Amino acid sequence: MRNIVFSILLILYVAAHQTICAQGVDDWDQAMKESGLVDVQELDNSILVCLKYSTEDNFVGVDMYGSLERAYLEPSFARRVVRAQELLKQLNPQLSLLIYDAARPISVQRRMRDIVRGTDLESFVADGTRGGRHNYGVAVDLTIATLDGTPLDMGADFDEFSPASSVKSTPDTSDASTRTIDVYKDYVNSLVDSGVVSPDAARNRILLLEVMCEAGLFPYRREWWHFEELMSISETRTKYRLLDF
Q1: What is the CATH number of domain 2-17+26-239?
Q2: I need a labelling partner for 188 at 20 to 30 A (CA). Which of 5, 93, 198, 243 fits?
Q3: What is the pTM of this model?
Q4: DSSP state, residue 150
């Protein structure tokens, strides 16, 4: 029944929003730059980008970004992603980070929340009232891919909201001791032991965790693809600028 309700909501949403773009924003890239963000590929053009919300290949099945094709982030956060790419290249030059989502305007967040409101997916989408980390340019969704853009097996797809996507079972905090690479490795290995993910997928996921954590970015506990700073959301909202467009 919930899936039927979600499908009806999605059909109504698409009918009402044939062109998904922020009202009053003619140039996404200019708006991002005016907000002080940087294009990650201008810092390191070896990083691959395929914004899932600029396609219909995402959990809502709707192109949310329209013309936006570049991955923008807050400058210091972007440099951490670049560092993770450097670490990955040192380990295997034939691999690259592949970014699925980066900075997300609050207007898009609100529309996304409207789509999932009242469904099982609602808890996975930050409330658009004040915004989540993506809405401040300090969260990135990514994976590891081969140089031709083929993503490695991570045991669960991007935007797959299932137990297989989790990286740990305890709540996330800004306490570094609760979000160490050993904590994540132990949990991934437990998924292998229980048959949830394969050993190959576990190795790929641990590789991603290692380079990202070494660069100072840590995963959200229910999404292997989402990485953020070790900082509370209240501190994030104080330190960074909301993408209010």
Answers
A1: 3.30.1380.10
A2: 93
A3: 0.90
A4: P
